[in-house]
Amino acid sequence: MRTIAIANQKGGVGKTPVAVNLSVGLAMAGRLVRLVDMYPQASATDKILGYDTELKASAYNLLTQNSVTLADVVIPASQEGLHILPSDIELSGAEVELISGIGGQTRLATKLYKSRIPYDYIIIDTPPNLGMLTINALAAVDEVVVPVSPTSKALKGIHLLERTIEDVRNNLNRPQLHISGVVCTRYGRTNVSKDILEIVQTRFGDKMFTTVLRDSIKMEEAESRSQSIFDYSARSNVAQDFADFVKEVISRE
Ligand SMILES: Nc1ncnc2c1ncn2[C@@H]1O[C@H](COP(=O)(O)OP(=O)(O)O)[C@@H](O)[C@H]1O
Ligand SMILES: [Mg+2]
């Protein structure tokens, strides 16, 4: 089983679209996938389940209540082979509860694997900060995939993410944890995009995915309908990019 957190403390770089479409794409390729939403705004949950789904329980309950188990929280998505551990706005309160609670950094790690379902992938979407929810995600996985969008400040603060990963690896005893890939999202036909992509490629070398995800209004349109890019516009350039990206992830199995 591969366990991957999609992380970058910058907002708007495409973490949620990458987490959602990677999960759907892997499931379409026959993998059994659980998408875990650790973002209180629940963007991934909304995209997978639709905007007005009533949840019985969410990641908040799993993280803060001992009696709540995975089976109480995880629900199947309409895509075959995809399950989701949903988030809701209550999860924002978990930050504070986790800081003061015993084992607050590893709550997710302790519960995430107590499933009898033989998942091939667990993909975690994370919030745009390096708080307790992101730390819980990092402490629960082996791999981190970092989406980077090519704007002038693309790499600003990326060392903070790297240092946090380092801290989790050393202090929470997760020797496997590492950045396994960096993917360029929202790539535009501009000189800035081209220049920054080169800088990012130089910085991350062979960790860089060859596939570049082009910027496209189709992404937002798909999101507004709670559809994956494959369902919404399978023939668009950006759907092709995501399909290539999914293949690249699979090729690293
Ligand atoms: N190729 C692409 N990859 C990822 N996001 C894209 C792409 N093209 C356009 N977008 C848009 O970029 C925005 C990314 O923002 P968001 O989902 O908030 O990112 P994050 O989860 O990192 O905060 C979304 O509105 C999405 O529709
Ligand atoms: Mg997001």
Molecular structure report:
- This protein is of the alpha/beta class and 253 residues long.
- The protein has one domain (2-247): 3-Layer(aba) Sandwich (Rossmann fold).
- It is 42% helix and 17% strand.
- It contains twelve helices and eight strands.
- It has an eight-stranded mixed β-sheet with strand order 3-4-2-5-1-6-7-8, with helices on both faces.
- Helix 9 (191-204) links the parallel strand 7 (178-187) and strand 8.
- Helix 1 (15-28) crosses helix 12 (237-251).
- The longest helix has 15 residues, at 237-251.
- It starts with a strand and ends with a helix.
- Residues 11-17, 128, 185-186, 213-216, 219-220, 223, 238 line the site of adenosine-5'-diphosphate.
Indicate the overall shape.
globular
The overall strand count is 8
Main beta-sheet annotation: 8 strands, mixed
CATH superfamily assignment? Answer: P-loop containing nucleotide triphosphate hydrolases
What binds here, in terms of ligands, is:
adenosine-5'-diphosphate, magnesium ion
Average pLDDT, rounded to a whole number, is: 95
The name CATH uses for the topology is: Rossmann fold
Proportion of helical residues: 40-55%
Q: How many angstroms separate the termini?
A: 9 Å
List strands and helices in order, with pairings.
Elements: E1 2-6, H1 15-28, E2 33-37, H2 43-49, H3 59-64, H4 70-73, E3 75-76, E4 82-85, H5 94-100, H6 107-112, E5 121-125, H7 132-138, E6 143-148, H8 158-171, E7 178-187, H9 191-204, E8 208-214, H10 217-224, H11 229-232, H12 237-251
Parallel strand pairs: 1-5, 1-6, 2-4, 2-5, 6-7, 7-8
Antiparallel strand pairs: 3-4
Helix pairs in contact: 1-2, 1-12
